Amino acid sequence: MKTSQTKSDFKHKALHWANQFEVCCFLDSNQYKDTYSAYDFIIAAGVQKELQHSSKNAFEALKVFYEKDKQWM
């Protein structure tokens, strides 16, 4: 089996797995190479903390959220 096929299958299975969570995020480089790329793709599933805010003062709310949770952002 080709490596690209194996990777594609894994991505599909990972997205299928993440579908069980209310919130998930899948970021794919689409094989774009640059100096800062460390991963071809990354997936996150589930929520421990979240910021929901209207557009009014959104950046200020993000700043406050960041100040409380710097260690993981």
Please, could you describe this protein's structure?
- There is one protein chain.
- The protein has one domain.
- It is built from two helices and two strands; from the N terminus they run H-E-E-H.
- The chain has a two-stranded antiparallel ribbon with strand order 1-2.
In short:
The chain has helices at 3-18, 58-68, and strands spanning 24-28, 41-45. With 73 residues, it is of the alpha+beta class. The chain has one domain (3-72).
Provide the number of structural domains: 1
* Average pLDDT, all residues: 87
Number of helices: 2
Order of helices and strands: HEEH
Strand order of the largest sheet: 1-2
The CA-CA distance between the termini, in Å, is 37 Å
Rg, Cα atoms, Å: 16 Å
* Total number of strands: 2
- Helix content range: 25-40%
Main beta sheet strand tally, sense and closure: 2 strands, antiparallel
Gross morphology is extended
Unreliable sequence segments:
none
Binned strand content: 5-15%
Secondary-structure class: alpha+beta
Lay out the secondary structure.
Elements: H1 3-18, E1 24-28, E2 41-45, H2 58-68
Antiparallel strand pairs: 1-2
Question: Any key phrases for this structure?
Answer:
73 residues, alpha+beta, two-stranded antiparallel sheet, 2 helices, 37% helix
